[in-house]
Design goal:
The chain is mainly α. 68% of the residues lie in helices and 6% in strands. Helix 15 packs antiparallel against helix 16 and helix 17 runs antiparallel to helix 20.
Length: 444
């Protein structure tokens, strides 16, 4: 009997060792089920948001998740989920504003986000991240507590410095904390070395139309005198970096005020060299963020009319062919990148640019199509794009979406299949198109 008991203990030990040796045990349960389980077991939830085409996602799955130490920590402390952000995890990814992969997310049993990390990391970094999440989840400076305390701590210099650094640790944007601290700080002189070092350290988060920009403009000459040769280069680009940061934040938050600040400063920064097509797209996006749909539709229609009437199809093809021949004769040198450029130019430089504009504007416009006139106009844009680049899947894909909204599901499926057939087998967009096609077929 004693021998049997010893043998049983040995088997259980081996089984336990095998569980950890296999790395992270990703559970095959829904997010809602994970929330219930996390509360019941007093654990946090770890989610790996991935896509089938994401190379860093595959590297994590191959080298980090199977590690025994990683498995030992994460299987003990977390409920672990793997969610394809383009399939079963699409809505959850959308709720947490996941738009880059891999995104490693930690939430509590209430679904509150505690930590976010974007991009691939190695085993040691992954383990350190896990320990940090555990350590800070219930601390006075967890992500949740920081966000709750921030509105009442606008005049607390010490708290704001902690807030800035912790928000960066948690993968969040600390721009609001930086602005708040710069407005009230008494620690350092605005034209001194310490301030310049602060600006250099946090420039990738700073935005325009605030205290950070004011300090930069007021003390630019003093900073330039302080700067090393390498720092001079960073300083010269600091203004444009702030402008770009503002644009990035505007798109991430879909904030019309940030978008307006970005557009105004972008125009000032580029002056007469401003790309008018880019500016038009920014203005269209601003109207969408501001939810001024009537103004958006009117501007989108005028923009597309101007594009379609500027040049004839024959003129575009002639110019594209001339550019392709010039590049091939004078600039082309065989390489993977050059071959890809040459292949794209052969399809038409201007033609491909215009089809991308039609695709982006068309999908946005489609959300607000209501009348027969709206749909007719949108189909005319697609007809034009299909002539620009024959064989391009984008126009078929857009038309499928338009037809589906019109209730013409059978035709929508036909065009979605055409779009899929035009994509190479290894193209990363195939997964999205296949999912959409299956959804259309299931809705019949």
């Amino acid at each position: 009997m004693k021998k049997i008991a010893i043998a049983l203990l040995m088997c259980l030990s081996i089984i336990g060792a095998d569980l950890y040796a296999q790395g992270i045990n990703f559970e095959h349960i829904t997010f809602e089920e994970a929330l219930v389980k996390a509360k019941k077991e007093n654990k946090l939830i770890f989610i790996d948001f991935y896509t089938v085409w994401c190379a860093p996602c595959k590297m994590l799955a191959k080298t980090v998740f199977p590690d025994s130490k990683v498995g030992e920590l994460f299987n003990k402390e977390f409920i672990n989920l793997k969610l394809d952000a383009e399939k079963e995890g699409r809505e959850i990814a959308k709720n947490y504003k996941v738009d880059a992969y891999p995104t490693l997310l930690f939430v509590n049993g209430d679904g509150d986000m505690l930590y976010r990390k974007v991009g691939g990391i190695n085993i040691d970094q992954f383990l350190a991240m896990g320990h940090d999440v555990i350590k800070t989840a219930n601390s006075d400076y967890s992500l949740l507590s920081l966000q709750e305390m921030f509105p009442q701590k606008q005049n607390d210099e010490k708290f704001l410095r902690i807030y800035i650094d912790r928000m960066i640790e948690y993968g969040q944007n600390p721009a609001d904390g930086i602005e708040a601290w710069l407005k009230i700080q008494t620690e350092i002189k605005e034209n001194g070395v310490d301030m310049f070092e602060f600006m250099l350290k946090y420039v990738k988060y700073m935005q325009v139309d605030g205290k950070a920009e004011e300090i930069l403009i007021s003390n630019y000459d003093e900073f330039f005198d302080i700067a090393t040769r390498q720092e001079e280069g960073v300083l010269k680009k600091m203004q444009s970096k702030m402008v770009n940061n503002t644009g990035t934040a505007a798109y991430a938050q879909k904030d019309p005020q940030l978008m307006r600040a970005f557009i105004n400063n972008w125009k000032e920064l580029h002056g007469e060299d401003a790309n008018m097509e880019a500016l038009t797209q920014y203005e269209l996006d601003y109207l969408l963020f501001a939810k001024d749909i009537d103004a958006y539709k009117a501007m989108a229609e005028a923009y597309m009319d101007s594009i379609m009437s500027a040049k004839s199809l024959q003129q575009i093809r002639q110019e594209d062919k001339a550019y392709y021949e010039h590049y091939k004769a004078n600039k082309y040198r065989p390489s993977l990148i050059a071959n890809s450029i040459l292949n794209n130019l052969e399809k038409g430089r201007e033609a491909r640019k215009q089809t991308k504009i039609i695709e982006k504007t068309g999908f946005s416009y489609l959300k607000y199509c209501e009348s027969k006139k709206d749909f007719k106009r949108l189909h005319s844009w697609i007809d034009y794009g299909a002539q620009l680049v024959p064989g391009d899947y984008n126009m078929d894909n857009l038309r499928a979406s338009v037809l589906n909204k019109q209730g013409k599901t059978k035709k929508a499926i036909q065009y979605k299949e055409q779009a899929l057939n035009k994509l190479p087998e290894r193209d990363k967009k195939r997964g999205v198109i296949e999912r959409q096609l299956n959804e259309l077929k299931s809705d019949q």
